[in-house]
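ingest -> validate -> predict -> emit
validate: passed (alphabet ok, no gaps, 186 aa)
predict: started
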Amino acid sequence: MKDLVGADILAGAVNGKAVFANSVSKTSVEPKEPTALFLDFSGIEVATASALRESVIALKAYKRSIGSNLYPVLANINDNIEDEIRVLMDARNDAIIACTLDGDGRVSGARLIGDLDPKQAMTFRLVVRLNGADAGSLMKKFGEEEKTTSTTAWNNRLAGLVQRGLLREFTNGRSKFYRPLLEEAS
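emit:
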């Protein structure tokens, strides 16, 4: 991100839009499989809500709207930037995944920023705990307990989590399988 921003401060909607345009250009090649796109904020000291809205949040929305195999993840954000992201996520009733990423690409401290409705939050936790699931298996294992015995309801929740960029979706013919974006997200 620091290379895209060109400074240690990302401020203002106009700058955010420029970062968005550069991000789209640099991520135009699609991977074959669903993949985390780490937006590394190392060296960025300040990022305003308006800039984040026009860059990071816009990129997340754009990638999900085109069905991209790239799923934006915030990496190495400081507490102040996390606060700005939380305000944006709360205002949008949305969530995004953040983590710490070391120099070797190892992920730690993965977490959701923002809130999910209770049913989506429960579904997200189940998929993370199982390290992957499909609607049918969730219905069989947890349908009675969760009072959700419709495969369609589980499918809708899973699709909603993919649309938010929180789960990866893999297809094999007509069947779909869902995995956590980051294995340790919670």
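The mean pLDDT is 91.
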